[in-house]
Amino acid sequence: xxxxxxxxxxxxxxxxxxxxxxxxxxxxxxxxxxxxxxxxxxxxxxxxxxxxxxxxxxxxxxxxxxxxxxxxxxxx
Length: 76
What we know:
With 76 residues, the protein is an alpha+beta fold. The chain contains 2 helices and 2 strands; from the N terminus they run H-E-E-H.
């Protein structure tokens, strides 16, 4: 019997060492942080919330582009 090592699939930007933060519906952040439920970012990435962004943290370019195209005063 032989054993073969497979590469793990890419599951987040953190896998490449490029930690970026995503825009997520505000009302889903606390639930995800406490219960570990999955959230979907504006860009479509799905993940559990594990940390909070600090001012100046890098933001996902696709999330930022989508967020800036939304009308002001929308409900999140």
